[in-house]
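Moderator note: this is an archived Q&A kept for reference. The question asked for a predicted structure of one protein chain; the sequence and the answer are reproduced below.
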Amino acid sequence: MSFAPRASACAPTDVEAWLAELGLEPLERADREGVTSWDLVLDGRRRAALRITLILDPTLALICWAQFAPPIADLFRKSYRVLLRWNDELPFVKFSVTEDERPVLVSELPVAWLKRDVLGLAIARELAVADRFHDEASDWLKSGGWKTGPGETAVDGPGSRLLERYAADLGELLGDPGVPA
């Protein structure tokens, strides 16, 4: 057993331990070239099956990358204006569009700051944002054949429990969708 300091502030085993403590079970884990990723699918209070991929580069950051909606098929200018408005309204998370026109929601967490509750809050924030903008995004979800509402288990599922755990830190995100964050 070595007591030498590790090369990074966070290891994949740390993330897995934190996920277990938060009651979150990844669907899968992948390792490639020193980077580890985990896939989660969580129901929020209003949003069903939000797929969040955690990507850890132990020397740099952990990225929470949520597949917010299928590729946008409507008038792009209108959709991009919506995403830009949401980016302006929300701190700590940003919307982007992938090469295939799929909107994604991203949080970047520097490894120096990474702890269980920093990770838990980032995942809860992405769920809360998906819930907050659920009505505005429902046409995108429907057009891609995605579920538009949570199932019966969502009320007591891991996503709902995570939202409750960090409710005090999520402020207006959990309130009225018309209230600015």
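Archived answer notes: The CA atoms of residues 24 and 158 lie 6 Å apart.
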